[in-house]
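Field notebook, page 384. I keep forgetting to write these up properly, so this time I am using the form the group agreed on. The chain and the ligand, flavin-adenine dinucleotide, are recorded exactly as supplied. Prediction of the bound pose follows.
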Amino acid sequence: MAIELSTEETRVLDKAIEYGMKNFAPNVQRWETEGRFPLEAFRQTAADGFVGLLVAPESGGKGYRFLEAALTYQGLARSSAAMTLAISTDSNIIYGLSQLSKAPGIHGLLPSMINGSAILTYAFTEDGAGSDPGSAVTVATPVAGGFRINGRKSWATLGSEARYIQLTAKLGDSSRRDMINLLVDTGSPGLAIGENYNKTGANLLSTVDLVFDDCFVPDERLVTPDGYRAAMWGIGLARIFVGAIAIGLCEAAIDTTARFLADRKQFNRPLLDNQGLRWKLAEFMARVEAGKWLVYRAASLMDKEGKAPLEGAMAKYYCANLAVEVTDLCTHFFGARGFRTGTPLELMAREARMLRIIDGTSEIQLEVMGKWIDGKYRNASVSA
Ligand SMILES: Cc1cc2nc3c(=O)[nH]c(=O)nc-3n(C[C@H](O)[C@H](O)[C@H](O)COP(=O)(O)OP(=O)(O)OC[C@H]3O[C@@H](n4cnc5c(N)ncnc54)[C@H](O)[C@@H]3O)c2cc1C
């Protein structure tokens, strides 16, 4: 991996920054206040080629590398972390389907997903199974020609708009983690979509419960019988992109705050004259640079080796936590203005907290790293 971006990679990042500034930034406060997913804007973003980036060109995608996709999300997140999360979540599901299933009943749907006409949601979490999704109890019972699904999933992002659900469910009476992965049509009889949750942030994204009551899914919609592993693989790659989104959010927060501090005067001089304030921004700048390279390294490893569980966990942990810290202090640097709702920093601070939870909380990332340390050192001889 090169230790600087190529001209082409820089172009990918710049294009995404420019696209977000033009299409998301002017609208993001309104979308958030309305608490409604901007479907038309999303479809336009898909039409402009930002959905399904990783999917191979022969299946209708752009064939981007992971690094290029991460740069795209970093760039878009400068304008809206929530909208970028919608794009990356939807795209990750599409990419997963393209990798996991060649069945015509699934593969044939990819173009409609990539062009944004069919939105996807992902259903793994349950009320009783969050950090430990292997304990989920929603069950797929084999019946003639398919499966009957019973149970309740929670926290399905874009669940109100989705045309399809990628569902991970326990197979019959099987043991923990013995799960299958199915593609469920949201129009299926026996499926009810719950009320959109009110959340602390990212209210432009719908988040809902999905209730399955003897919902039939035909055999041809079986994505993979190895559902738990497939789900964890999908979450593994999503973590890298959450890191990229956190970096874009930090960059936006620092940029907005530096401009404000340069402009606002107290004691007859710009606030940016105060060393205490600008040193903090300088420290954040250095840490964002470090986080950025954790993300790029994890994405590059995905490109090279097809997996990066440890590096992805480090990138997600470091960048999501950093985003919470940066947006909190930057909000404070706005003084009372930062305490008002509907201001850019206030919105960013609320979104940052979400990044620390989705696709495995910060503690779960520490667990991934801790297990690696355990595996390496538990039985190693100690040399002084
Ligand atoms: C905005 C948003 C969108 C989401 N979208 C989706 C989606 O589309 N599809 C989907 O399936 N899920 C989705 N989720 C769910 C998300 O993946 C879970 O919320 C997350 O995995 C945490 O689970 P939990 O909320 O049940 O927390 P819990 O597992 O109950 O954890 C509570 C607290 O305990 C800590 N904790 C748990 N276990 C340990 C441990 N072993 N060691 C130390 N600390 C621990 C956690 O870090 C956390 O701080 C979404 C969540 C959010 C906030």
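OBSERVATIONS:
- The mean pLDDT is 96.
- The radius of gyration is 21 Å.
FOLLOW-UP: compare against the apo run.
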